[in-house]
Design a protein that fits this description.
This protein has helices at about 50-65, 85-100, 110-120, 125-155, and strands at about 15-20, 25-30, 35-45, 65-75, 105. It is of the alpha/beta class.
Length: about 160
């Protein structure tokens, strides 16, 4: 942030989303784009009830000066595309149209399983894991993307 309160374009953050049937886990990068931190999980009653979810994402985009969004793409182990991947792609398109930001789909294979194991290893109680698993999955998705970017820069 500059002294004027306007975000410096060199330090805009990336948002990572784990889109599920009734939840969206949200993570945001640090200002340097090195690490991903969990922010929250947005819950909804039905899959297609997205008004409040999209409004909350809009608020977070404004609050954190988001420059790009990465949505987890749940492709199969063999690379195939199923219904969840199609729904994630549709959600990503809605975000593109609504926010006018770049929205990328990013391979999220195993992100929820990694998140679950991470919470278990931290001895988070089973009933509490439900509150956090989606935002931790969003961290794994976003961190994978950030690591990829840094590896690409190092190759050059």
């Amino acid at each position: 942030m500059s002294n004027s309160g306007v975000a410096d374009e060199n330090f805009l953050r990336v948002m990572g989303l784990d889109y599920g049937s009734k939840t969206v886990g949200i993570a945001i990068s640090d200002l340097l784009g090195v690490t991903a931190q969990p922010v929250e999980t947005v819950f909804r009653k039905k899959e297609n009830h997205l008004r409040r979810t999209l409004a909350r994402i809009d608020e977070l985009i404004e609050e954190y000066h988001i420059s790009k969004i990465v949505v987890g793409n749940p492709i199969y182990e063999d690379g195939g595309i199923g219904e969840r991947a199609r729904l994630s792609a549709s959600f990503a398109e809605k975000l593109r149209e609504r926010t006018h930001l770049p929205v990328l789909l990013w391979d999220e294979r195993e992100s929820t399983a990694f998140a679950e194991r991470s919470l278990i290893s931290q001895q988070v109680r089973r009933e509490d894991r439900k509150k956090y698993v989606d935002q931790i999955a969003a961290v794994f998705i976003l961190q994978g993307y950030l690591d990829y970017l840094h590896n690409e820069v190092e190759k050059q």
